[in-house]
Design goal:
The protein has helices at 5-8, 14-24, 28-45, 49-58, 60-76, 81-97, 125-134, 137-147, 153-156, 207-222, 249-262, 271-285, 298-303, and strands at 173-175, 179-181, 186-190, 201-205. By secondary structure, the protein is mainly alpha-helical. It folds into two domains: 5-97, no CATH class; 125-308, hpI Integrase, Chain A (Orthogonal Bundle). It has a two-stranded antiparallel sheet. The relative contact order is 0.11.
């Protein structure tokens, strides 16, 4: 389990462990973030999890007043609204799990504000090309699948490294003595377990992305790896100590972040998905594709357009 040791101590309490595992069944990232938030809330307020429940049960109004004061204190300290709002979600989750239906009707200034990405912009075609030139062969595959196919990094490798995209998920990829594609654009299937929406879906990868995949797989074959359709699309470097079956999300984004920095840019990896979305909007505005609600073939036509190259 990927977590700082000091938060592991909270899980020694059976009630906390059950709450955490219940959240984890839905999303390991949410469970981990909420656990850290709950622990930090206790630290900031010099309390513990049992006291939170006891205070909420014994004097609901006093608990609400103290929480409102806590929120206002963070606002005065200049904390972002999205940062403060997380404490409200965490506390309500903990209370609800323990059968306390308390309503924390407190307004948070600029609750949806995210100042760290407020000035974030989508890279243009030239900047994306620069990022790709600075990327490793493995990072080029990740960047392509995000920028040209719209995948999330969590689909390439999960948070704990237990699953990820496999070679067999690229349906037109043919593995033999040579790595080839039976058709380009090639279909990429994202299975249910890798989907944030919890349903299987598909997208496509065009010629440039397919070239990066082929070059990366050729490199791995040259290094002696026996490729199968069950092999991870993204593999560990030979110099790395392998602790998981797949690359964790943090390693996927680390590769991308390094390429962005080497390109002399300041962007978060997730802007690559915005590049994909923006490219579709531009293609639609030029009449190159129809609105996505009209036909399942829209993305296939879009991915073939020069704007993605």
């Amino acid at each position: 389990m990927t977590m700082q040791p000091k938060y592991n101590e909270l899980l020694l309490d059976d009630d906390v462990r059950r709450w955490f595992e219940n959240l984890r069944a839905r999303s390991v990232i949410t469970a981990t973030v909420y656990l850290r938030g709950l622990g930090y809330y206790c630290y900031l307020n010099n309390t513990n999890l049992k006291e939170i429940l006891a205070n909420a049960k014994s004097n609901e109004q006093e608990f609400k007043d103290n929480f409102i004061d806590f929120i206002r204190r963070l606002e005065k300290e200049g904390k972002a609204g999205s940062y403060i709002a997380r404490f409200k979600k965490v506390i309500l989750s903990w209370l609800k799990f323990n059968g306390i239906g308390l309503q924390l009707t407190v307004n948070i200034s600029w609750e949806n504000e995210t100042p760290t990405i407020v000035n974030e912009r989508v890279p243009n075609k030239e900047e994306l090309s620069r990022i790709l030139r600075k990327a490793t062969s493995r990072a080029k595959v990740s960047i392509s699948l995000m920028a040209f196919s719209g995948l999330r990094p969590e689909s390439l490798g999960t948070y704990e490294g237990t699953d990820g995209l496999r070679l067999g998920d690229i349906k037109e990829l043919h593995i033999s003595d040579d790595i080839t594609f039976d058709r380009i654009p090639a279909m990429v299937v994202v299975k249910q377990k890798l989907s944030k929406a919890r349903h299987q879906y598909f997208t496509f990868i065009g010629r440039e992305g397919a070239t990066y995949i082929k070059e990366y797989l050729d490199e791995r074959k040259k290094n002696g790896e026996e490729l199968t359709y069950d092999s991870p699309l993204l593999q560990f470097d030979s110099r790395c100590i392998r602790k998981n079956d797949f690359l964790r999300t943090t390693l996927v984004t680390r590769d991308i972040r390094q390429a962005i920095e080497l390109a002399g840019l300041k962007m978060i990896p997730y802007v690559l998905r915005a590049y994909f979305s923006t490219s579709l909007d531009i293609a639609e505005s030029k009449g190159l594709i129809s609105h996505p609600g009209g036909s399942l073939s829209w993305i296939l036509r879009a991915i073939s357009q020069p704007i993605f190259a």
